[in-house]
Design goal:
The structure holds two protein chains of two kinds. Chain A is globular, with a radius of gyration of 14 Å. In chain A, the strands form two sheets. In chain A, strands 2, 4, 5, 9, 10 and 11 form a six-stranded mixed beta sheet that branches. The N and C termini of chain A lie far apart (40 Å). In chain A, 0% of the residues lie in helices and 60% in strands. In chain A, strand 6 and strand 7 form a beta hairpin. Chain A is built from no helices and eleven strands. Chain A is mostly beta strands. Chain B is built from no helices and eleven strands. By secondary structure, chain B is mostly beta strands. The chains are: A mainly beta, B mainly beta. Chains A and B meet through strand 4, strand 5, strand 9 and strand 10 of A and strand 5 and strand 10 of B.
């Protein structure tokens, strides 16, 4: 079955880089996603990477994918207090029940930025 | 990016009553909509997947008679929690997926802001 694992907490100082790690088990994943959730809010899509890519950079965000090890990471450069949130890793897999692609989420990593 | 709205954002109801939550895709047609439930400090649990004009596919353990899902149009899905009880109190989040025409986005889900349901 699918399983996505993340560490639950990460604390960094403002201005430093944050690296949030994620491992997944389904090698047939097509896309892998990072979502951000601020308190009391829904999920905001941050970025995604196609499974045949190794890296994707978007401004302060860098996504690295090691498909062999099924390891995904999100690096946030120059972390700001506004980056404090919960970050969810998700993989897109084909669900036999629904007959369509669905997301499987990790439990989320709570990023705390210390001023 | 694509915008998904939910209404209401917060609802408090008495035990035994029914509550309807709306999910709308505002700037794209959502061929598929998903309903999730999120418990405190837990990940999102997929409740059901619905395709426009079809019956929803419920995940194992989710009572279809209790959580009624209707996806009548390409921009609207509703979740009705029937005969709500305190254990149904949770944060309900919908998401929508459609064809936006941009490469790499047909498989992307966009999420609504969530609805906080409190059953007294």
């Amino acid at each position: 079955g699918e399983d996505v694992e993340q560490s639950l907490f990460l604390s960094v100082r403002e201005g430093d880089s944050s690296v949030i790690n994620c491992t997944y088990t389904d090698s047939s994943s097509t896309y892998l996603y990072w979502y951000k959730q601020e308190p009391g809010a829904g999920l905001q899509l941050l970025t995604y990477i196609f499974s045949n890519m190794d890296m994707k950079q978007d401004q302060r965000l860098t996504v690295l994918l090691n498909k062999k090890d099924k390891h995904l990471s999100l690096r946030i450069a120059d972390t700001q207090t506004g980056d404090s949130a919960i970050y969810f890793c998700a993989e897109s897999t084909l669900s036999s029940g629904a007959g369509s692609y669905q997301l499987t989420f990790g439990k989320g990593t709570k990023l705390s930025v210390i001023p | 990016g694509a915008v998904v709205s939910q209404h209401p954002s917060r609802v408090i109801c008495k035990s035994g009553t029914s509550v309807k939550i709306e999910c709308r895709s505002l700037d794209f047609q959502a061929t598929t909509m998903f309903w999730y439930r999120q418990f405190p400090k837990k990940s999102l649990m997929l409740m059901a997947t619905s395709n426009e004009g079809s019956k929803a596919t419920y995940e194992q353990g989710v009572e279809k008679d209790k959580f009624l899902i209707n996806h009548a149009s390409l921009t609207l899905s509703t979740l009705t929690v029937t005969s709500a009880h305190p254990e149904d109190s949770s944060f309900y989040i919908c998401s929508a997926r459609g064809t936006s025409g941009r490469a790499g986005t047909t498989d992307t889900q966009y999420f609504g802001p969530g609805t906080r349901l409190t059953v007294l």
